[in-house]
Amino acid sequence: MFSALTNKDTYSKYIDSMKFAFYCLTHPLDGFWDLTHEKRGTIAAANTILILTVLSRILKLQYTSFIFNKVYWPKVNIFLYIASILFPLALYCVGNWALTTLFDGKGRLSQVYMATCYGMLPYPVIQFPLILLSNVVTVEEGAFYSVLSALSLVWAGILIISAMMEIHEYKLGKTIFFTIATIFAMLVMVFLLLLFFSMISQGIAYFVSIVREIMFRM
Q: What is the rounded distance in angstroms from the CA atom of residue 177 to the CA atom of residue 217?
């Protein structure tokens, strides 16, 4: 593992894949095609973008001016906050990949994950400067801040849809329908997980009640 980290070719490929992520910002169709089919992307770069996205969310929570982000810290759980990003991402990637059989998709799970992370790049790219900007703009200039903040989400959404078009080789209409189906699959998975954990908790409570009853009678 250490040799892989110090290998110049590996490091060079990682740097090139990070640079290519910025090419995908402005050339999404060509970029995401080359990302997977020409192997221009790497999982390491995707992980880096994901870490930057999570970090930007945390720093935004901490350092954004109270004018634009009012936080009641006693109710903030940073681990749940991080999970609120990673869990939907995991559901999206698994749901997206699971539906490829029904929709004749070409992408593999690793490609779906990598392309989705690359598509998230506009969020940290815009949000990091906005954290600083929020502390110098006034309330009257808040509309400018809000528009840029919304742009980071819209841009990321467009890139992710473009990524799914290219890696699965869909037309736009089919991609939009596929995205809706993926969201529905995510909801189904959440329902099944809630049902599973509910059954587990009820089973544990049942056995605990039996043990307590036995101990009480002894």
A: 60
